From TrEMBL:
Residues in the signal sequence: 1-18
Record key words, sorted: Signal
Name of the protein in question: Uncharacterized protein
Top-level taxon in the UniProt lineage: Eukaryota
């Protein structure tokens, strides 16, 4: 009834801190308690654990109620400290408000040792040690297991190594060996603590899409169970179970092969990025492989073709426009050449007359570059049609072709009358019969 009263009112009304004393002590060791409140306060002294378990009376009227509290020369000591001793000590004021006067924090003060999976541990134990105990956690409610006694070597537990000549040896370490190893003297006084942590090995691979990935198994252990954890999806996937490929819902189906010495994955993809966990048959984590698959930068041929065609068309348009403009400028700057008039020659022979050579008056023939005709004639202004010009005008009083004496330019052809008779006149009269 008293314990219930203390618990209820302690949680409901809280605590008055005042001038709070504090101290830190090592697990398994002893600590001297301050004279106030342990020596001077006659009222009941309560302990309130940090883990929120029920409070308890540890002293009343200056007398210890906990067998681990001892007195020597008017001083009090708390011995064989455990994690349960982490908390505050205080008194009740006015029967309702609890005042904390002393806060105690428990540290393991253990020697920390880190080893890789399947490595070996060699440790020199204190010469005064007579017992070695093991517990997974210091605040475990289970009693520590005695692994070794100096006076009874036959009862030693060899599952966690052997001790010979004060040397402790453990081979093929796994996470099952993680925990606290406590060495005590013959009177059970704590001598030292070793906190052993076995960690998995880690590797990293970087690949490009389409490449081959080969992951070698750990050097010892197996058969292996492999779990794949994608990089961006929190959904573990089973790849191997006891060395055999799990084909159901396997993203690597058709690309994965379990070999004697490792795991082979062909044509890796960007979605294959993530971690591969290798565990032994007991579930111990042996290896974590972090894989990063980069996307291949493949050229986009359609974009390249489009760009090339666009650039080519642009350059062709610029060149065509430049040439057309240059040609047009030359035509505008040069005088127009006039063609000679057509000349008809009459000869006695029936063949076709040869055209006479054409001469230019004070104008040299154009020798500039010939520009191709524009693709779109509408771009250029309309040119006026060609107008023939007679560059040799007739002179007054001068006959270009004077008649020759005795020669008719147009001789009369036999049997042909070039002057037909007028109408009404019978050219061929009726001959008398």
């Amino acid at each position: 009834m008293l314990m219930l009263f203390v618990t209820v009112f302690g949680l409901s009304w809280g605590f008055s801190t005042g001038n709070l004393l504090a101290a830190t002590a090592c697990y398994g060791k002893s600590i001297e308690l301050p004279s106030y409140p342990f020596s001077t306060v006659r009222d009941p002294l309560y302990f309130f654990p940090s883990n929120r378990s029920p409070s308890r009376i540890v002293m009343d009227e200056g007398k210890p109620k906990d067998p681990r509290i001892t007195s020597s020369r008017a001083k009090f000591y708390l011995t064989n400290l455990t994690k349960d001793d982490d908390g505050s000590f205080g008194t009740a004021k006015y029967g309702m408000l609890f005042t904390r006067q002393f806060k105690l924090e428990i540290s393991d003060c253990a020697e920390k040792i880190y080893q890789d999976y399947m490595n070996k541990l060699v440790y020199n134990i204190p010469t005064v040690s007579h017992f070695m105990e093991f517990t997974p956690e210091l605040d475990s409610q289970q009693k520590p297991v005695i692994l070794w006694k100096r006076t009874d070597l036959q009862s030693n537990d060899g599952r966690r190594g052997k001790i010979k000549n004060n040397i402790w040896r453990v081979s093929q370490l796994t996470q099952a060996d993680n925990g606290y190893y406590i060495f005590r003297q013959n009177d059970s006084t704590l001598e030292s603590i070793v906190h052993l942590t076995v960690k998995e090995k880690t590797l990293g691979y970087e690949r490009q899409e389409g490449e081959l990935l080969f992951i070698q198994y750990p050097t010892s252990g197996g058969p292996w169970t492999v779990i794949f954890k994608p990089e961006r999806v929190n959904r573990p996937e089973n790849m191997l179970k006891d060395g055999q490929v799990v084909w159901k819902d396997n993203r690597f189906s058709g690309r994965i092969e379990a070999q004697d010495d490792g795991l082979e994955i062909n044509n890796v993809e960007s979605t294959d990025s993530g971690s591969f966990e290798f565990r032994d048959p007991q579930g111990n984590l042996a290896l974590i492989v972090q894989v990063e698959v980069n996307r291949s930068e493949k050229p986009n041929h359609s974009v390249i073709t489009y760009a090339a065609v666009s650039i080519g068309g642009l350059l062709a348009g610029i060149c065509c426009c430049f040439c057309s403009k240059k040609c047009c400028c030359k035509k505008r700057s040069a005088p127009q050449t006039e063609a000679a008039p057509a000349v008809t020659y009459h000869d006695k022979t029936s063949g076709t007359a040869t055209s006479p050579p054409v001469y230019y008056h004070n104008v040299n023939p154009s020798t500039g570059p010939v520009c191709p005709a524009p693709a779109n004639p509408s771009v250029f202004p309309h040119q006026p049609p060609y107008q023939p010009v007679n560059i040799y005008p007739p002179q007054p009083g001068i006959n270009v072709y004077p008649p020759q004496p005795g020669i008719s330019v147009y001789p009369t052809q036999p049997g042909i009358n070039i002057h037909p008779p007028p109408s009404g006149i019978n050219v061929n009269p009726t001959q008398p019969g």
